[in-house]
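Annotators were shown the component list below and the corresponding predicted structure, then asked to write short factual statements about the assembly.
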Amino acid sequence: MDKLEEGPDPDDITAWRQVIKNQSLGKIQGRQLVAVVQQIGAYGDPRVINPLMNEIAERMMRILRKHIGKNHRNEGWDMIEKVHHQLIEAVLKPASADGIGMRTAFVARIKLRAADAIRREQLHSERYVYSEDEKQRPNGQKALATDDEERAHVESVLKRISDPRKVLAFRLHMEGVPRNSTKVESIASALGVSAKTAETWVKETEEEIRTILGAKS
Amino acid sequence: MTDQTKATRRDQVLFAFHRECATPTLNQIINWTQRYPEFADDIRAHAGIMCDWAADEEAEEEVVDELMMNRARSRALNAIYNAQTAEQDKTQVGPETTFDQLLSSAELDTRQLARAIDVGRDVLSDLFRGRMSPPIGPRLVKALLDQLKATRAQFDHALAYAQSHPSMGYAKASQQPTIIQCSYEESIRRSSMSPERKSYWLEED
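Structure shown to annotators:
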């Protein structure tokens, strides 16, 4: 995506009218759109405030859909709509934490709330697993043609692992070199567990991946 | 630390973590969990999610269907409506809700205001002291809103306050002080204004 622009000064309503007329809202930074909405307020000219809020709402929706996967209940839509509602309401509350956050760093704030929603689901309900998918998965997968395919498959395996700490341990294990005992201790320290546990988690995850990818080797 | 303060602080720390470490590395996780041990579990959980996202980064972005986009736009319109309602409520229960406060905000007294809009002071006195029953003539309302720089909601609230706290008439030896109510028209007609001004205030635009 092209780099987004700063856009006119939030006080310059005439300039914003022009941006709307030119259908150029999509080129402007999200945080700037939020700042101008907060500057104008809910009673501002509807020909300005409505298109701005629509642009923010659509952008927010795309970011949430990208980050909340379909491996959640109702393909993640329940979570997406809940977070979307919370955030779009906060846009017009300039003093609220999310209102301030979105005019400071739009995407980061939405990602924070998306991660919060995923975390809440991890804590309060069992991870939703497509049981049919599980059954369909045979012991031996058909051979994977390329590294990209293999990587995609590893990702799909990681998505099925219910303990997110194990997934993170594995990812950190795969990150760069060296992979020695010091690295295991670092992973343990990052995850707040003993070196032995960290090592077990990495090994278990590796085993699981190896089993599933068995047909390739 | 209260629960609310802790939640706020947690949000601040995690927001900063998201801003500074889009794809957290091993060292960053160690660093942040050591800096904020009280939020270490949250930091680790978010780091795990962020690493999952980074691994998916190259995946093609999914198009959100029109139905869901319509629902998103509808929530945006609701948010505007809700914010307007909240603002109105705030105005209505705000501090500038009596005529005395509105006058004070506009840096006027009754005499100056009466002169500015050329209305009898006795009429304003009836209105401000809760003796004049609504409805109030539209010309007078408009002139007052202009001079007091007030919204209709603020005016209505001040009027309601005046009505519920009316000034009593003078106490007499023969009877208890009473509240003498009058209509807008009665107040204008009994005023000391000239007949032309009385007609002006009784007419509508």
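Statements collected:
1. Residues 127 and 175 of chain A are 26 Å apart (CA to CA).
2. Chain A touches chain B through 56 residues (CB under 8 Å).
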